[in-house]
Amino acid sequence: MRLRVVSARNEIKDLNANEKLIHLAFRASNVDFLNLMQRCPRLRMIQVPPSYRKTMSNAIQVFLDMQGIDLLEGDVWGHRKDLDEYFTIDDATMEEIRNLTANGAIADDVATQIQKKARIGPDLIRYIAKTKITA
């Protein structure tokens, strides 16, 4: 699974329209979120750092909910944008999340267990377990 990392608002206009999973590495305004949703109509999830989430308006959170877009807190630890514009979660981690979920583990337990092994935020792990993403 790959998250497109967007580190500046001027990158939004250059995004592929088919992007579904985005990590915003800058403090986005309401206009930035609206531009992002226009540019990527298939968007399903936006991840923002915890410090940015606390400063977001309630209006944009409600609007994202109405559009069916999940807003997650989390970071992309150790990712270097100059090497790759995507943050990739390896297949082994994805498979482990699927296996734990299939065996009846609840999302919070899965998040706790996977977070110890992989540098992925708990919200993203719960999102993967909930949505059963395959790629």
Assembly context of the chains = single chain
Portion of residues in helices? Answer: 40-55%
Outline the biggest β-sheet: 5 strands, mixed
Give the number of domains: 2
Shape label: globular
Radius of gyration: 15 Å
* Annotation, overall tally of beta strands: 5
Order of helices and strands: EEHEHHEEHHH
Mean pLDDT: 88
Residue fraction in strands: 5-15%
Distance between the termini: 5 Å
**Estimated structural class:** alpha/beta
Going across the biggest sheet, name each strand in turn.
4-3-2-1-5
Contiguous helical run count = 6
* Poorly predicted regions: none
Describe this structure in words.
- This protein is an alpha/beta fold.
- The protein folds into two domains: 1-88, no CATH class; 91-135.
- The protein has helices spanning 30-39, 50-53, 58-66, 91-102, 107-117, 122-131, and strands at 2-6, 21-24, 45-48, 70-73, 86-88.
- A five-stranded mixed sheet has the order 4-3-2-1-5, with helices on both faces.
- Helix 1 links the parallel strand 2 (21-24) and strand 3 (45-48).
- Helix 4 (91-102) packs antiparallel against helix 5.
- The protein is globular, with a radius of gyration of 15 Å.
Short description:
This protein is an alpha/beta fold and 135 residues long. It has helices spanning 30-39, 50-53, 58-66, 91-102, 107-117, 122-131, and strands at residues 2-6, 21-24, 45-48, 70-73, 86-88.
Layout: helices, strands, pairs:
Blueprint (H helix, E strand, L loop, with lengths): L1 E5 L14 E4 L5 H10 L5 E4 L1 H4 L4 H9 L3 E4 L12 E3 L2 H12 L4 H11 L4 H10 L4
Parallel strand pairs: 1-2, 2-3, 3-4
Antiparallel strand pairs: 1-5
Helix pairs in contact: 4-5, 4-6, 5-6
